[in-house]
């Protein structure tokens, strides 16, 4: 610090720098520089400088001058009498302007003997001597002045201290400018984010309203579909009970019944998926005789299989009492899987339903001879509205999504495997009644 001060002084007045050995900056200056490093606005900087500039040199007055284009603005002062606070002068008409224009310090022992001094401006003041240092010697942005009421020639040491203060002030002013820009950017960005947040909230509210309307529409559509479909299914089932029905007519009425039943099942799936999103898909557990349920499902979908000359094989070794589940949800899950297997398998193929149980799980697999599911699609095929485009034959892509939701609602899991020699195995497992009892205890 001492060497830096002497270097500044030497550049202003060659040969006048005193010996630096043993000369240390006063602790006061060190404290001032620390305070300036923490300043975050111009008023704080000016308050620090106006006090420190006078105390460093024992002057009777000090000014803090800022450059405003071609003007010198006397922004702050600390003196035994009024100086020029708040006033502006042309750069060419005052000594602070001279210091900034030349980028160097100036010392004047007698203001009335120096032609650079505008004497008329100084007559009302106490000033007899002064020194002025620029704030930044390259492209100065201001100046700091010291004034004495009696003749005084500022020493190189005093100039060095004042210049050190000015240099620290320059760094602090630049930091303030940086912080101000950062704060402006933060505020601007905050306003942008708040505005975007409001827009997103409005968009979210609009989407919620749209979703509500869609759900209401879906409920109405489902209701309007189920009623006529149920009437068709009832009429078809009555026809199928007739003992005099010809085989060809029985096949036709069987297709009518299975198609109507599929409409009813799809409508129920839509409602259940909507309820699951609201957290309302809660199974009603009862004892389920699984082998009997599978046989019923086989009879329901048999007309569709016979139309395409397909075979449905059933293998079930799950004992009675092994499974407690929601019979309706489980039945629709199985029927969705079997229906898919028939529709995506070629004519004259075989669809096989397998079910077995151990102490913890009842595992069911519906095996087809279709094109199979690519490995990369097996995780997504259970998502809503996802279908294999190249093999899609109608449908909304909701059947498998419902199956997964129904299985998970029972505490089970579902997955897909390769079938041998071709096709897929759609598998799921549910906890046995024994395992459910163990969990409950």
Features:
17% strand, alpha+beta, six-stranded antiparallel β-sheet, 441 residues, disordered N terminus, rod-shaped
List the total number of helices. Answer: 11
Shape: rod-shaped
Rg to the nearest angstrom? 46 Å
Strand order of the largest sheet: 3-2-1-6-5-4
Overall average residue pLDDT? 84
H-E string: HHHEEEHEHEEHHEHEEHEEHEEH
SS-derived structural category: alpha+beta
Strand content: 15-25%
**How helix-rich are the residues, as a percent range?**
40-55%
Write the layout of secondary structure elements.
Elements lengths: L1 H11 L14 H12 L3 H16 L3 E8 L2 E9 L8 E3 L4 H8 L3 E3 L10 H4 L6 E7 L6 E7 L7 H86 L5 H31 L8 E2 L2 H18 L3 E6 L7 E2 L1 H18 L5 E8 L3 E7 L31 H11 L3 E6 L5 E8 L1 H8 L1
Parallel strand pairs: 8-10
Antiparallel strand pairs: 1-2, 1-6, 2-3, 4-5, 5-6, 7-9, 10-11, 11-13, 12-13
Helix pairs in contact: 1-6, 2-3, 2-6, 3-6, 6-7, 7-8, 7-10, 8-9, 9-10
Structure commentary:
This protein has helices at 2-12, 27-38, 42-57, 95-102, 119-122, 156-241, 247-277, 290-307, 327-344, 399-409, 433-440, and strands at residues 61-68, 71-79, 88-90, 106-108, 129-135, 142-148, 286-287, 311-316, 324-325, 350-357, 361-367, 413-418, 424-431. It is α+β, with helices and mostly antiparallel strands and 441 residues long. It starts with a helix and ends with a helix. The chain contains 11 helices and 13 strands. Helices cover 51% and strands 17% of the residues. Mean pLDDT is 84; it is low at 1-22 and 390-396. The chain has a 6-stranded antiparallel beta sheet, sandwiched between helices. A 5-stranded mixed beta sheet has the order 8-10-11-13-12.
């Amino acid at each position: 610090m001492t060497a830096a001060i002497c270097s500044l002084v030497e550049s202003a007045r060659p040969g006048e720098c005193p010996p630096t050995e043993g000369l240390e900056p006063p602790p006061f200056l060190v404290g001032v520089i620390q305070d300036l490093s923490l300043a975050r606005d111009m008023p704080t900087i000016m308050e620090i400088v106006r006090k420190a500039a006078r105390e460093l040199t024992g002057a009777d007055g000090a000014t803090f001058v800022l450059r405003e284009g071609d003007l010198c603005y006397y922004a702050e002062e600390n003196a035994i009498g009024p100086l020029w606070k708040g006033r502006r002068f042309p750069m060419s008409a005052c000594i602070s302007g001279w210091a900034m224009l030349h980028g160097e310090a100036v010392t004047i022992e007698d203001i009335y003997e120096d032609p650079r001094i505008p004497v008329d401006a100084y007559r009302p003041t106490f000033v007899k001597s002064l020194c002025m240092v620029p704030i930044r010697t390259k492209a100065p942005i201001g100046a700091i002045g010291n004034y004495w009421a009696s003749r005084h020639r500022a020493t190189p040491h005093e100039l060095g201290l004042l210049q050190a203060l000015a240099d620290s002030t320059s760094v602090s002013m630049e930091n303030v400018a940086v912080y101000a820009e950062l704060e402006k950017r933060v505020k601007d960005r905050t306003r942008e984010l708040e505005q975007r947040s409001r827009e997103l909230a409005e968009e979210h509210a609009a989407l919620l309203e749209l979703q509500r309307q869609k759900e209401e529409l879906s409920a109405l559509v489902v209701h309007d579909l189920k009623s006529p479909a149920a009437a068709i299914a009832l009429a078809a089932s009555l026809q199928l009970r007739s003992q005099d029905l010809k085989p060809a007519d029985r096949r036709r009425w069987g297709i009518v019944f299975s198609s109507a039943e599929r409409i009813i099942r799809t409508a129920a799936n839509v409602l259940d998926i909507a309820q699951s999103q609201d957290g309302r898909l809660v199974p009603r557990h009862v004892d389920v005789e699984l082998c009997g349920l599978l046989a019923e499902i086989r009879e329901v979908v048999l007309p569709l299989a016979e139309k395409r000359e397909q075979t449905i094989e059933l293998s079930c070794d799950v004992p009675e009492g092994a499974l407690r589940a929601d019979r309706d949800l489980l039945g629709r899950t199985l029927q969705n899987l079997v229906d898919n297997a028939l529709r995506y398998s070629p004519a004259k193929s075989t669809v096989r339903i397998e079910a077995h149980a151990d102490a913890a799980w009842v595992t069911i697999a519906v095996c087809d001879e279709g094109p199979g599911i690519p490995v990369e699609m097996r995780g997504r095929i259970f998502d809503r509205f996802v279908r294999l485009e190249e093999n899609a034959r109608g449908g909304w892509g909701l059947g498998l999504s419902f199956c997964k939701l129904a299985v998970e609602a029972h505490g089970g899991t579902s997955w897909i495997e390769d079938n041998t020699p071709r096709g897929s195995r759609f598998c799921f497992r549910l906890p046995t009644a024994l395992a459910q009892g163990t969990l409950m205890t």
